[in-house]
Amino acid sequence: MTDRLIDLLLRRAPRERLLLGLLVIAVLPTALWFAVLEPMAARRAEARAELTEVRALQDWVAARAAEMAALGQAENSGPAAPIGLSALEQSLISADLRPAVTGLANREGGGIDLRFEAVDFAVLMGWLSRQDPGWGYDIAAFRITRGEELGVVAAELQLVPQV
Predict the structure, then answer these.
(1) Where is it mainly found (predicted)?
(2) CATH 3.40.50.300 corresponds to the domain 85-161
(3) Which has the least CB within 10 A, 31, 121, 147, 154?
């Protein structure tokens, strides 16, 4: 193999040999860069970006956990008295959810059944998160079904007084 290479180079003019040498010297590092080093650098940059995202997510979760712990301490003063059907209806009216309610009824034992046929998911979840800390009810059953339109759901809730 080396004999053939030497024979090939000896048949070339000195200028051609110099150009072939420069070509090998320039092409070899370039090929090494594009074949090995550049993909490794790209993967490293992606890994650093993912690490930054994971750390940001961990910080966010820790902040939400601290908020929930603070809320939990506030709630540990004992169960709140249930707000009642009319107060619940007033909160639905203030959140512009009353037109979406298809069923609102008292249950035996002081609970409430609440049903929505077609309601915006984000609005419903926002209303629930605002009501839950102090409304005096626990959610005994919650069923949510995807609606025909994007972001619209059907939901059923069974609320029972906190004990």
Answers:
(1) membrane
(2) no
(3) 31
